[in-house]
Structures are given as structure tokens and as C-alpha cells.
Design a protein that fits this description.
Helices cover 15% and strands 30% of the residues. It has 272 residues and is α+β, with helices and mostly antiparallel strands. Strands 1, 6, 8, 9, 11, 14 and 16 form a 7-stranded antiparallel sheet that branches. A 6-stranded antiparallel sheet has the order 7-10-15-12-13-17. A hairpin with a 2-residue loop joins strand 12 and strand 13. The relative contact order is 0.22.
Length: 272
């Protein structure tokens, strides 16, 4: 069930920026969501961790209980004590697996919050992933979707959704196609647009479900999450393949969608 207060905020932000966001080669950002039925807080309007959703969408929940058939999963990144509940479900192995390549010392999967380690996204009682620099330097977490795309005879991803918990100014999400940077969304730009505060573990402006729609010209095959602090937390990562079925929509619903699009500082670079 979508919260109307959140949608109203989207419209007030997007209405002033909607003209710029409709460029043929521009990614657009919106903050609509559904309440997840597994207790993980927020999820994409296109797919639920338990009940599923539309064809052509895939979800990473970091919970063994909601693992998708055909994805082997890995316990390698779990914090101690969580091997019975958590996993990176989509990782490696199998023709449809997603290649995940972080140093294990910088990535954890767990439930609950630990001071100065990781904070669960607001109202998320399930497993989630976090990325940390362990107090110095930078760290990254890469999801390579090449195998998933090949197994589905697809060319790229044109939708990404994820629950970003206690958004910090030192975290960002970058999108690549064939090694070239397509676009990037930063924590600082998101917080500025929603009036959130960095690291707030409960506020609606700092714990948000982010939807990014890409044009075909900017479809991507690799997601890189970056941080220079402690820590970046995320859950319910959803990707939509570029050749997924497109459902017909009415003019009224299309108009509402346009109002909900907000270009909040995505730094865009066209593919060569």
C-alpha cells in the first residue's frame, strides 16, 4: 500500500523538474513504493519479496526465505550468527546468477542494527546488506548482471529500485554499460531533494525507496555501490530488463506517472 504523504512529496518536487526529466536520454527518479509483505519495510511497486510481481523483474532480498528459484545464493558475506536467515541470493553460480565482487571485509549481510557498524533501514526487520569502509578510505560493492541478461536474451537493464536506509552523504550508486559510466545518484543529492538528514535511521526523507527509470540509450549491465564511510545500507534491490513486457496504461495513469518523476541530481553521461 503506497503512502499518500510520500507521493505528495514526489509531486511537489517533480512538478518543477518534470520538463527536464523527460529528455529522451535522461534517467528519471521517483519515490513511489509498496509496503513489503515480509517485514522488510519498502519494496518496488513492481515486485514483492513474497508474492512476486510482473514478468521481467528480479529482486534481491538478502533473505533465504525469499530466494528465487534458479539463484544459488551465498552465505559468504553474512555477519556471524546469520547463516540460518540471510544470504546474497543472486550471487554467482548457475546460468542466471549475478556476479558480486566486493572484498568480503567491506560487505556484510545481517538483521538489526549495531552501533558504528550498520543500521537497518527504517521498519526493516529482515536481512539487509551494508557496505563499509571500516573507518578509512573507500569501498565498493559491484553487481554484474551480464549472466542474468544473457540467460534472458536481453541487452540491458532499464529499471532499478532499491530501499536505501539512513541515506548518508558519503554513499552513491553508479551505473555502467560495457565499462562506461552511464549515470550516478548520490546520497547528498537525494537528501537535498527530500529534505532528509544524513544518517537519520527513522526519518522518511532519509529512508526511501528509490526508483530509477533509464532510457534504452542508457540501459546498464553493472551496478556499483560506493562509500567512504560507515556505512551504506540497502535492501530489496529490483532490476527490470529492457525487453520486459510493457503493460498498457491509461492516459490518466500516465499523467500521474509523469508528475511523479523527479530528476534529483542524477549525473548523466551518454554512452559512446
Amino acid at each position: 500500500m503506497k503512502k499518500l504523504s510520500q507521493l505528495a512529496k514526489i509531486i511537489s518536487i517533480g512538478s518543477a523538474l518534470v520538463v527536464g526529466s523527460l529528455s529522451a536520454n535522461a534517467a528519471t527518479v521517483s519515490f513511489s513504493y509498496d509496503s513489503a509483505t515480509d517485514g522488510s519495510g519498502l519494496t518496488s511497486q513492481y515486485i514483492d519479496p513474497v508474492t512476486g510481481g510482473l514478468p521481467g523483474y528480479f529482486i534481491e532480498t538478502f533473505d533465504q526465505a525469499t530466494n528465487s528459484t534458479g539463484f544459488p545464493g551465498s552465505l559468504a558475506y553474512n555477519d556471524p550468527g546469520f547463516d540460518q536467515d540471510c544470504a546474497v541470493n543472486s550471487v554467482n553460480g548457475g546460468p542466471a546468477g549475478v556476479l558480486v565482487t566486493p572484498p568480503s571485509s567491506n560487505v556484510g549481510v545481517r538483521k538489526g542494527s549495531v552501533p558504528r557498524v550498520a543500521a537497518a533501514p527504517a521498519n526493516d526487520t529482515t536481512c539487509y546488506a551494508y557496505l563499509t569502509n571500516n573507518g578509512s578510505g573507500s569501498a565498493s560493492f559491484t553487481f554484474d548482471y551480464s549472466q542474468l541478461l544473457a540467460s534472458n536474451a536481453d541487452t540491458g537493464i532499464t529499471y532499478l529500485g532499491f530501499y536505501w536506509g539512513s541515506v548518508d552523504t558519503f554513499n552513491d550508486f553508479s551505473f555502467y554499460s560495457g565499462g562506461s559510466l552511464v549515470s550516478q545518484i548520490t546520497g547528498s543529492s537525494l537528501l537535498s531533494s527530500l529534505g532528509g538528514s544524513s544518517g537519520n535511521q527513522t526519518g522518511a526523507g532519509s529512508n526511501v525507496y528509490v526508483n530509477i527509470d533509464f532510457s534504452l540509450a542508457e540501459q546498464f549491465d553493472r551496478l556499483v555501490i560506493n562509500t567512504t564511510g560507515v556505512a551504506g545500507e540497502f535492501d530489496n534491490i529490483v532490476v527490470g530488463l529492457s525487453q520486459r513486457p510493457v503493460l498498457a496504461s491509461s492516459p490518466a495513469s500516465h499523467a500521474l506517472l509523469l508528475l511523479g518523476l523527479a530528476a534529483i541530481g542524477l549525473r548523466l553521461r551518454r554512452k559512446k
